[in-house]
Amino acid sequence: MRKASVRFENISKIYRDPKTKKEVRAVDGINLLIEEGSFAALLGPSGCGKTTALRMIAGFESPDAGEIYLDDVAINALTPNKRDTAMVFQSYALLPHYNVFDNIAYGLRIRKMERREIREKVMQMLELVEMPGMENRMTNQLSGGQQQRVALARALVVEPSVLLFDEPLSNLDAKLRVSMRTEIRKIQQKVGITAIYVTHDQAEAMSIADKIIVMNHGKIVQEGVPREIYYKPANEFVADFIGEANFLNGVVTRVDEKSCSVQIGGSEISVNGSYNFDKGQKCIVILRPEAARISDSGVLPGKVSLSIFMGAYQNYQVTVGDELVTINDFNPLINRVYNEGENVYIDFDSGSLHLIT
Known about the structure:
By secondary structure, the protein is of the alpha+beta class. It has 8 helices and 20 strands.
């Protein structure tokens, strides 16, 4: 299977609102490199520009500025059928009057490949997506997960160098989405193809991608490996969009090469890490709910304002001064459960915190 890198150089796409006549920058001057053989996720809320970016790679939209490259080949002027890419759509886009075999073989027949070679490649794809013996089924006889596997096989069989996914699992139920994203990742790793995956589901992006590109208002606000995006968010938007987060307002009281201290209310806490802050500077401490502990002693004093059993964890909201801190205390079967109104402390490890301005 071929694979290629994808590069954006100062790419912009501008639409004109038909009602207001104002220009809307769906993609606003982004630069991006997706390395060959990697699995990248474009992640962000609706309207952030991620789908527009994907469609420009496929050739369904044209940039108003900048150039897109597959490896070192500029592709802006190429029509979709001339680009070495294939798309897996949200709606599957299967041909209802064709059976599974003919759906997968469709692209090969357009390329006028010999009948024997077509059959060999289609059968290989059916094995790859774990659907052997189902080539004669009609698409309306398939489950949603099976239809998505056929769509994936149809995209892979033409051996593109880049495989594009446009929110391919959004029509499936929650349990099937989890199993299918695992299958997609496994197949991508097996064939080694470059994959670019658009989603608004942060859990999906975290579980499937080598690299996450977070977008907002047409711009890239952060890119990196999933752990970096989660534990070291660049700003409040990323921290809030990727999972849950508490934002505690503080003032920097000490800074050195490996840590700093922050005053929150009447308490001073230590934060591990190298930060380019000044003493006296206002900052925001990011504390994930699962990284905090509620106990009879600790760093930040507070009062329990909410205590709810959630099965795998006890969900607390603790009032700390003017702040409301959410805590997910896992394994409540063996941990003490605190009730609303109790005075408690919040404790955490210094390495679990992250500072932003």
